[in-house]
Structures are given as structure tokens and as C-alpha cells.
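Chapter review. Work through the record for Glycosyl transferase before attempting the end-of-chapter questions.
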Amino acid sequence: MALVHEWFGVTGGSEKVFRRITDLVPHGERFVLWKDPGVAEASLRESWLARTPLRRSKAVALPLMPLAWRTLTRQRFDVVISSSHAFAHTVKIGPEARHLSYVHAPARYLWSPGLDGRGENPLLALPRLMLQSVDVRLSRHVHSYAANSREVQGRIRRYWGRDAVVVNPPVETDYFSSAPAADRAQSRDYLLGVGRWIPYKRFDLIIQIAEAAGLPVVIAGSGPEEVNLRRLAERVTVPVTFEVMPSKDRLRQLYWGAKALLFPVHEDFGIIPVEAQACGTPVIGINRGGLLETVVDGETGILTDSTTPDGFSGLLTRLDDLDENVIRANASRFSEAAFAANFSAWVRHAVV
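C-alpha cells for Glycosyl transferase:
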């Protein structure tokens, strides 16, 4: 068996899922386009792209990724499982291999540029159309697709004309729900934003929501928008605290101390809102994407069509009606055990 993932970063939701897949299929050979500095997994075999300067620019390397996947190795395998959010589902290793593809999302910058600003440049319109054609044509050999959410299942049907089963990704709900007593006793007196500090994650809006609500906010994560976010934080009247790359233990503390997780972004699934709910922390987010599957509106969080600071901040008064026990129970639906059972059932059915 071969296990295939896109480029492999130090952090990220898709990397967490791939690690869990490798746990479930420990005998599989593991391939990636390249791995970023700091990645500890020595068992990941990199493609020839890793030996070129292109590894430093995903955008520039994008057109060559399908070629890299078709020239990955001369080895032959019976079963290939790809973990795809760009072109990994186009990998072809041997003419007889049965290919199963777990899809985090069809490449957003190709198919959904409105959700991901990296593909919105008008100059990219023609290259995007060409790569869309390549994406479909080179993936016809995939025998079975699994989508990480109903949202992604719909996109696979719309863009690729293929059916997919839904296998929600694994979340460490047991870890986040079983916090020490000191973490549980926090006063929940601040708002929280967690994730990569990149434009479409809208951390600027999170800070503005906190200001409109008159509440402190903690911004946890890291990314290229840090300088811009710190400048914005200097201009608002509420305290803004930055937690750069917090440890897992620290992140759990932050979830348990928060009044609510703010999540004003259209995500394909969204592991972070589930982690927050495992800590009994409600989610305030937009009424689209993966939140429709992970948040029960009015019970474990509040969903809104608004994208303005006032629209979000006005929802905070409804949080007192939510029950922490109900919130934590909802998160358990997305546990690692649930993923293991559903993923294994998909593989067994697909390889017959």
C-alpha cells in the first residue's frame, strides 16, 4: 500500500489527518511532494520537486504538481490512498493499483477562488481553467472518493462529477475535554480566535468583533499576517493578546478560558471549532460550510449570515442560554475513534 499526501507542513489540519491515516495503515509507504523544515517524520519520501527551489513557492510549483505525482516512483502498489487538497488525487502508481482518495477539498484556488483569495487574480483565469481540465482528466482512475464533509462532498460532485462518501476528520476530543481542574475553573472572560494568520481566515474581523463587543480577545496561531494584525491591535481599544504557536496544552487552556470561539470563515470542515466545543466553548461563526455540520445553531453555538463586527458582537448575549455539557457531547461525534471506524469501513468497502 502507498499513502500519499501533498506538501507536508509542520502544522495544519490535513497533516493531522494524514498522521492518523498512517496510524491506521502503518505498513503503507508514505509519499509527499516535499516536507517543510521542522517536520519530524523521517519516514516521508519526497518527490523530485523537493530537490528544486520550487518547494519554496507552492504557487509557482502548482502547474508541475500533476507531473510530479505521475513520476513519483517506479514502485508498484496494490492500493494507493491519497490525502488530497490540491493534486494528490491525480497520483498514479502502477496501472493495476486501486486508488482511494480522501479529499480535504478540491483545490480552492482552482475551483473556489471566491473562498480563497490566492486564485482571484484575473490574470490567473486562463491558467486556472487549464489546470481545472488537467485536474479532472488526470483523476479519472480514482476508484473511490471520501470527502471530509458534506460541503466537500457537494463540491466533488459539482466539479469532478463523482460521488463520495463522507468521512469526517479525526479530532482529539477526548484530550480537549479532559482538561485539568485548574483549566476548567477559568472565568471565561475573553473571546478567542485560533488558526493560521492568513487573510482569508479573517483575524482582522475577529479583532474588530472584540472591539465592537468591548471584550478582550486572544489570537492564537502564527502566519504571515502577524505584523498587520499587531498593527490593528494597536489601534483598537480592547486588549488583544497574541499567543504565537501555543503548545497543545496551552491551546486547551485557551479554549477552556474563552467565552466563545469566533470563527467568521467559510471552512470545508473546520477542526478548530470541534476542539473548542470539546472544551464546552461555544462557537460563533458564519452560517456556511463545515460549521453547518459541526455546530448545532442555538445549542452548541450561534451561526449568522452577517460578516460585520456589530452583527457578530450582538450575538454574544445569547451565549448564556447554551449548556456546556451539550456542547461537549456534540463534539464527541467527531472523535478519533469515530474517524477510525468510518475510514476503515470505507477502505474495506472500496478495495473489494
